[in-house]
Amino acid sequence: MDVVTLGETMVTFTSKSSGLMRYASDFAMKVAGAESNVAIALARLGHDVGFISKVGDDEFGEKVRSFIRGEGVDVNKVTSYGGAPTGIMFKEKLTPNEMRVQYYRKGSAASAMTPDDLDESYIAGARFLHITGITPALSSSCLESVLTAVHYAKRNGVTVVFDPNLRKKLWGEEEARSALLEIASMADIVLPGIDEAEFLFGPSSTEQLADRFQELGASVVIMKLGKRGAYVKDHSFTGYVDGYPIDDVVDPVGAGDAFAAGCLSGLLDGLPVEEACRRGNAAGAMVTLVEGDVEGLPTKERVEAFQNQDVKEDVER
Amino acid sequence: MDVVTLGETMVTFTSKSSGLMRYASDFAMKVAGAESNVAIALARLGHDVGFISKVGDDEFGEKVRSFIRGEGVDVNKVTSYGGAPTGIMFKEKLTPNEMRVQYYRKGSAASAMTPDDLDESYIAGARFLHITGITPALSSSCLESVLTAVHYAKRNGVTVVFDPNLRKKLWGEEEARSALLEIASMADIVLPGIDEAEFLFGPSSTEQLADRFQELGASVVIMKLGKRGAYVKDHSFTGYVDGYPIDDVVDPVGAGDAFAAGCLSGLLDGLPVEEACRRGNAAGAMVTLVEGDVEGLPTKERVEAFQNQDVKEDVER
Amino acid sequence: MDVVTLGETMVTFTSKSSGLMRYASDFAMKVAGAESNVAIALARLGHDVGFISKVGDDEFGEKVRSFIRGEGVDVNKVTSYGGAPTGIMFKEKLTPNEMRVQYYRKGSAASAMTPDDLDESYIAGARFLHITGITPALSSSCLESVLTAVHYAKRNGVTVVFDPNLRKKLWGEEEARSALLEIASMADIVLPGIDEAEFLFGPSSTEQLADRFQELGASVVIMKLGKRGAYVKDHSFTGYVDGYPIDDVVDPVGAGDAFAAGCLSGLLDGLPVEEACRRGNAAGAMVTLVEGDVEGLPTKERVEAFQNQDVKEDVER
Amino acid sequence: MDVVTLGETMVTFTSKSSGLMRYASDFAMKVAGAESNVAIALARLGHDVGFISKVGDDEFGEKVRSFIRGEGVDVNKVTSYGGAPTGIMFKEKLTPNEMRVQYYRKGSAASAMTPDDLDESYIAGARFLHITGITPALSSSCLESVLTAVHYAKRNGVTVVFDPNLRKKLWGEEEARSALLEIASMADIVLPGIDEAEFLFGPSSTEQLADRFQELGASVVIMKLGKRGAYVKDHSFTGYVDGYPIDDVVDPVGAGDAFAAGCLSGLLDGLPVEEACRRGNAAGAMVTLVEGDVEGLPTKERVEAFQNQDVKEDVER
Amino acid sequence: MDVVTLGETMVTFTSKSSGLMRYASDFAMKVAGAESNVAIALARLGHDVGFISKVGDDEFGEKVRSFIRGEGVDVNKVTSYGGAPTGIMFKEKLTPNEMRVQYYRKGSAASAMTPDDLDESYIAGARFLHITGITPALSSSCLESVLTAVHYAKRNGVTVVFDPNLRKKLWGEEEARSALLEIASMADIVLPGIDEAEFLFGPSSTEQLADRFQELGASVVIMKLGKRGAYVKDHSFTGYVDGYPIDDVVDPVGAGDAFAAGCLSGLLDGLPVEEACRRGNAAGAMVTLVEGDVEGLPTKERVEAFQNQDVKEDVER
Amino acid sequence: MDVVTLGETMVTFTSKSSGLMRYASDFAMKVAGAESNVAIALARLGHDVGFISKVGDDEFGEKVRSFIRGEGVDVNKVTSYGGAPTGIMFKEKLTPNEMRVQYYRKGSAASAMTPDDLDESYIAGARFLHITGITPALSSSCLESVLTAVHYAKRNGVTVVFDPNLRKKLWGEEEARSALLEIASMADIVLPGIDEAEFLFGPSSTEQLADRFQELGASVVIMKLGKRGAYVKDHSFTGYVDGYPIDDVVDPVGAGDAFAAGCLSGLLDGLPVEEACRRGNAAGAMVTLVEGDVEGLPTKERVEAFQNQDVKEDVER
Questions:
Q1: What are the chain C neighbours of F72 within 8 Å (beta carbons)?
Q2: Chain D residues contacting E, CB < 8 Å?
Q3: ipTM value
Q4: Mean pLDDT across chain C, nearest whole number?
Q5: Nearest-CA residue of chain A relative to B26?
Q6: Angle at Cα E115 formed by Cα E114 and Cα E120, nearest 5°?
Q7: Model confidence over A215-238: pLDDT tens digits?
Q8: Given CB 3.0 to 4.6 Å as the disulfide criterion, which of B289, C303, D205, F72 pairs with C298?
Q9: How far is CA C61 from CA C64, C292, E224, F240, in A?
Q10: With contact defined as beta carbons under 8 Å apart, do D137 and D110 qualify?
Q11: How close does chain E come to D262, measured CA to CA in Å?
């Protein structure tokens, strides 16, 4: 297996009309979660991926499982839990540029994950273990699970990838900083946003923030700079990698996950880090052109065509 | 004010297609809750009604408030609470005859209601206080609130109406039985279903179960017998009141609330209890002909036309 | 041309959900009108039909015109009128068995029709002129137009067909009775409902009511008896013709128009009146199986298969 | 009560697809009307508002009433009228930048409003009476009603606010000019658009047009200049107030009403006129970001955040 | 693996409105195919199932693959083929009781399946090989593929299950009879409909038709008799097994597939054939209660509850 | 008749959501085809047009026929063919700027057209015969039909109009070049795109490419240059005609057809070629503002208003 990741996937409901959700009449059901987004993105790019999670013993749990499985991600480690419902979420498009979410995930099935849900051999069989900063924020048993998973990875020589994904709605700042730093200190590859880096280390230059992650132990640092692209640092390359500017962003959600997956895909394929990062930039750009977190994710063929500016209209009649 | 009631109102999401909810793509948003259903039904029938509740400081809270206010129910005592979200619910029509619900109401804003949310003078100004067995099941502070409300009613000469509405998903049987009996013992008018009566007193005949409620203190007992109608007992009348048989039930949910509202409407209008019960039977039957809990509720004019079998097709072109 | 008819066609809006229209969020747009329903039904059955009408110089007028033209009916005599909007109508499905309509047709473009809109040669070129009791109810100039059309038919040897289609919402009873009797007295074929016959002549037996129409001058009387079928009387046959019982009526609206068209189609094809009436019964039954006034209208092939009980499931995979 | 307004509210139907309405298949039902838009906007901003109107005794009347009541506006003076239907309207989005409307409001229930429908004490109890130039255009009895309402306001010391809202489709130019000038001459606060000012007084500079309103008697003149903002003149301030430029206008309809409400809200809160106008500019800008006339109206908290450029994306997962 | 099956799965489009498809405006996309229906039904019942097929290298191919994979069926043997599109199908609900289909499957990717697409070890690893009479009708290379698959099964000791599923639209009668008899003669378990049995052997009694299949070599014969249930014959039991009568059939399509899967599930679980057949009857009945071929398929828990008449309403609030 | 055209019209299905079609749930049905688009555009502009085609004997054939007939195009020469289905097509909006189509038109009814389907007198009665390069690509019998039609036109003095409309998906490059050149050599008016001209004659300047068409025999050459407009050459005018720039293109499909129709309309009206081309530019621009191939086509009144920049917002309330 190329990558194993763990986290919570939610069923999302999006109002079909924009504006305050109180005026909505219809909602569309989709599936989303940072870690499963990454898993699906990697599967779309041709990699072999496994997902570890817990869902409620309910229809939404079945929806989550079948959707992710349908995308070609292994869900043998997604277990059902009768004690709590599957987490859900509402997305409200207030204006063309302002989005709000409302969670019903507190006490969800996924937040009941414990280290006992982890199978060391499953993690040991992967090249990369992908961790985000969302899963440890869900509950103390989830934090423990993440630390245990990282521990399993380390002792089996599995590369640990960490995307901080700070969620201030889910935990206190102090608690968050401490836990995220602990995980970062065990990671081999980190993919922080610039804001997240400043949250962890205080205001500083992009270059210095990258250094701080390396001091903590990361051998590859890929710092996300939004539309400007990324700042990348590993043993062979240090510098900025430009993003692909998108004029008509349809839905920005999921861009960070697609970026992370694109980078990991490149690294798994043995590309130099700056090339891997270009794939990340392209995947991140492409997913914003389509409504939904994963609906716009590219195959390897399409991401390469996009990088070569080769995607064009193809309408005949 | 004719009637004051208190309880939780939820935003409901119903799949637009029948079958397992995992296959749904679209959901319609509506508003429902036993107590607000009764309040709306009474307002539709021309009465002056007030609703006491707590909603989250979120869009669903605004939806609940504006929907109920739009129906002409006073919502000045519906407060916003920033500490928890508005409760929501999913309705899944498995087959034409089998419906399932999934709640996200645990720890909702309404379950944070406390006696401090009650204004004695508001209750004192009503002729009837309407209580269901759902509200006390939401949390211990909700149980306390219900008991306090009943206490306010009793010491201000307000008639206490009690509809047991047993919800086994929300609390344990022992706890439920004890609380419901305590409330029943303070009620003047009770509207139990036959199953609920047996849950409280053990298996027995309809007549004897009605007696047990009177022994507890109720002066009016209206026992719901489903399609067969009701068994009614007060100082002036004892006997069965036939229901209105409906062949094409579209949505059975809300029938009990419409029945209760019809009975209370009749009593408020000074009808003899058997006549009031007929209005309840008609309102309960009518609401099942339309999708949704309140969408089929009749005005007084329409319920009387229905009782006179005077509702008919009126299509011209 | 086989048949020419004249009248008002409206754009109709039907709520996508049942129950009180105030709760609707979406409406579907269709096109309907008794006379154009008959015209479309006849075209579907293979006849050559022309429609005379006036529509507003607006999008709804274009909708009416293109829909009817699309069905193969000649609309060269459907003129646009800038002085008033196209009439529209809302259909509200209160319960599975109760439907209500709300018109916005008062002062519509069609009600501005005058005798000047009629081209005698167009009417003279038809075998049948089809008239309903709705058109004369729209305005006094419409009544005049109908009388003029009938006059043109009579002096050119065109058979006059009259379907009373009483609409009490559109005019007073006295006015209606007088006008309908005047038209009936000039008709060769009449297709009254039993209620309409009683409205015109007072309560009486089916047989006697049919006689009254013959005394007025009709040579063929086809009296609609709803589900029971029809009572038919001409020079060669007198008696009852059974209907086709339908268990799962989806939408009863349009059945009368389909019946009329089926009968006329049979007569145009030279069938004996009882056979023509059977075709009418079948067409009327078939249209009720589908939502909408014209969407379920049969071709000649399908109506004959239905009469031979030859319509069956045809699902393969 | 802070503000009382009177006018016609219609049920609106908007095609779900853009382009010529003849090709539409589905329409969405909403509620709109300049005066009720202002009333709702003010209620959203925290003010106490009352609406005077007449609706048909039909489902659309109930829709209008419950929608406005749901928004927290007092509708005790919205009466039902059996003699005419509630006015309705169709909105057709021809292209992204071209919109057309089609009314069915001629002879509507609201146009039957008369001075008898006005309760002097209701108007007397308000700080502001809000009048638009649409209501007097509906019928002569509506014009009379407006003049009577203004008269009641004047003799009870209620500030008269006038927004000309010229509608050339509804009345002749001469008639319009004369009536609007008469009302303007009694108004304390006027909110004309620059085109409307020129319609009333002939072409002239913005400054001179504002002077003309002051000469007529207005103490506060707020002249709308579209995207450029407004020109404001009262005893303490004279000058231009910049608007908030919006790139992604979703639906421009309702901007003027939101602007008026924002200004009035500021004045009610005791802000200097230029500050009040800024609130108007912000509210007007915000409402264009959302489909519908009122769906994007801000609360006071949100309008202030917008003015401080503090509204931003808030998406977490 | 418990069962391997092979065949064509199509993307289906169903009009959202009933009646002639020419009037439809919206279509819903689903996935269906007799063999994948059986595979999904078995997976839902807890079995380990593999599907062999070919899809186009297009979006519909991806849809088919991800849908079936999402249901837990192994799709490693579903290959993509660039030379032809994925087959599709339209379903038209003419009336509540009459359905029609229109195929675009001629020359589809699946019809290009050849024996080279079969992996003997994949088939050898299963307990049952499931074959229908549809696959051999698609093309001569498909017929060859089916015969090869059966051959692989026979020489590896895999039980061959055959459901004739006669499709006269797809091939000529002579060709069909000859091919189906050839396959039947190699099958261990046959599940013919009574009509199909008569098609193969000529008119005869149910009992004699079953004998004919046994003479051909089948050890288990389960003859489908529609609503009446089935006639079953193996070494230990001979007789009729009653069906579960369903009043409110929503969608009959897929019932035969669910029946087959229920029977196979029972046999895989070691139930006596009459018990297995009861499970088939129940599964077949349950699937007709829901729109779609697979959406109503039961889990083992639900099918057993249904057989015990234990499925009931579960609505609380 | 002004213009006769022949070709294939398909029913098109467009996903209601953007992104990969595999994620779609709903599709909207429309009707499209280059030649019928031109026919409809000309009818909308007030011309008398006839369409020659073959459709399947199925619902989609009826849809095609009634849609085109509804638009006022003569369809007496659109015949039904039982041997093959009507061609259909799926449109997939991958991103705001990238569209893909998938055809199911191979072996369609239209591709079975033969010279026998042509009625020489029908073509002889037209002023223009309009031919595209799509029809000859459908099948060899279609190529023959086109050549025959052109032959009929030539010998009856009908002007031959040719729009190359190269479709590389439908035939090989050599075959296409040879056939298109053959048709071009018989055409009087040609409307090639610049790419198509280069495909036929090899890379060259716009001016020289136009010369080549004239050398082949065309008296009027209108070369499409996309947003830049067109290069026009006839006996009286040679030069560039600017296009109308459109910022908010909603759907580019159909612009070329609208352009062609606009040019032909102008020529039919006797405008100089540069004026005709301006009408073409305007029609082409206008149709891109609306979803769908024909939904945004202008009437003559609207196209002239657009050319005079006179189209503006018209929203009143």
A1: 66, 69
A2: 25-26
A3: 0.91
A4: 93
A5: A28
A6: 145
A7: 999 999 999 998 788 999 999 999
A8: C303
A9: 5, 19, 55, 40
A10: no
A11: 41
